[in-house]
Amino acid sequence: MIVAEQKPLDEVYEFAKKYKKVLIMGCGTCVTVCMAGGEKEVGIVANQLRLKAKENGDDFVVDEHTITRQCDKEFFDEETARKIKAADAVVSMACGVGVQYSAEVFPDMLVYPGLNTKFFGTNVEQGVWAERCAGCGECVVGDFGGVCPISRCSKSIMNGPCGGSSDGTCEINPDVDCAWQLIYDRMDKLGKLDELEKNQPIKDWSTARDGGPRTVKRDDVKL
Ligand code: SF4
Ligand code: SF4
Question: Where do the domains of the chain lie?
Fold first, then answer.
């Protein structure tokens, strides 16, 4: 899933207080799962803004609404359109994709981000999410026992390790497991250590962000 965390309330308040009526719009998919921008969080942020406005003597109305996904047009139904058009600005509690897509669907509406989008990751324990994929466009985890050296090694080393790890943790951040220790242990367990002796070719980064904004085109499903 896409993992995000809430912006500080003061930052959202600065957007909101410039308008008479602001809609806080949540997203029911990834950001609900990572407890940043779902219906519950929208309710909390909306109430915090209302309280702060009361304390500060600012005069604006805060409405709230959550849709299933802000990255798909089909979920912008009539009720959502009515709520958006009734507002002067929207604070989207979706990931950066949802924020931009909401602005694309409603080009006359000002849409502000309520979250900071972090990475593609997973929930490793209650309250902890960790990065697992950098969207490089050419997945190679099959050569590394299912552990991604690009997103999980701090230096994205394809022919590792760097030699700096200590007690299985990364020299860049001791709170993070060394990806190459994980790769080694996993390949050892799978009886495939010999495969790590193969030199990995230089990666073609044009399939990643380095090649500019990407598009996936599927002629077989295009209308
Ligand atoms: S190799 Fe690329 S696509 Fe596969 S998990 Fe790593 S970053 Fe993601
Ligand atoms: S210590 Fe491990 S994870 Fe950290 S940079 Fe070196 S090889 Fe990569």
Answer: 2-118, 134-211
Q: Say if ligand 1 is within 6 A of residue 153 CB.
A: no
CB 139 near ligand 1, within 6 Å: yes
For the Cβ of 136 lying below 6 angstroms from any atom of ligand 1, the answer is yes
Q: Is 134 in the pocket of ligand 1 (CB under 6 A)?
A: yes
Query: Which residue has its alpha carbon closest to ligand 2 atom 2?
Result: 178
Phi-psi region of 89 (alpha: psi -120 to 50; beta: other; left: phi over 0): beta
Q: What is the pTM of this model?
A: 0.94
pLDDT tens, residue by residue, 37-71: 999 999 999 999 999 999 999 999 999 999 999 99
Superfamily of structural domain 2-118:
Response regulator (3.40.50.2300)
Give the alpha-carbon dihedral of 18, 22, 27, 31, to 10 degrees.
40
Residue 223 DSSP SS3: coil
Instruction: Note the ligand closest to the C-alpha atom of 120.
Output: 1
